[in-house]
Amino acid sequence: MQEQVDWILSGGLCVYPTTPQPALGCLPLPENLDSLFDAKKRSQDKPVSIGATNLEQVSDYVIIPTNLESFLSCFERGALTVLLPARIDLDHRLGTQGIAVRILDHPIARELIGQTGPLSATSANMSGTDPLKSCCEAAVKLGGRDKGVNWIDATCSGGPPSTLISWPPQIGPNESRALEILREGIVPSREVISAW
Question: Do 195 and 75 touch, CB atoms closer than 8 A?
């Protein structure tokens, strides 16, 4: 894995396994995001999420609500992606209304991100095409090493993506705002609402 770590730290893209799909990862810097959006043929107005091993790892990027960790513990790790308020100005391709964060569960992804720091966690496929299960096949479809895309040799289980929710910016005794479900995925909306 050291080859892939070095590749990412030098600005390259890497396909790595998550549960359930391969992700296309890069350090969340503008020049790396240029390469990622070009490889995916993704519209510049469709932000990508950030994958991390824990909330502490993204605390420089986003504001972590005090009760978020407790809420996330109601679900399998990696089952939810949460839109959180940005702490600092980041590239608009990471979001303008907040930054989507996912705590990854796959052990290879966690080992990788433990060495690189947070990475983009968008699906490793051209926009508008179905994701593959093989990281290698996904990387080749995106152009492979000739186009700056390395990979970790792993296969994912497949299945629906994480459920994407937006966390309310303020919660207090006089606040009635609830979280918003932006995309239903592996966790049904009713389970999210019930836990809330």
Answer: yes
Residue 157 carries which DSSP code?
-
In tens, the pLDDT along 166-192 reads 998 754 444 557 789 999 999 999 999
Task: Give the pTM.
Answer: 0.92
Residue 84 in tokens:
């959180």
User: Quick one: tokens of 138?
Assistant: 């996904």
Task: Specify whether the CB–CB gap between 22 and 123 falls below 8 A.
Answer: yes
- Tell me, letter by letter, the H, E, C secondary structure of 92-127: HHHCCCCEEEEECCCHHHHHHHHHHCCEECEECCCC
Closest CA to 79 of 178, 186, 158: 186
In residues, how long is the chain?
Answer: 196
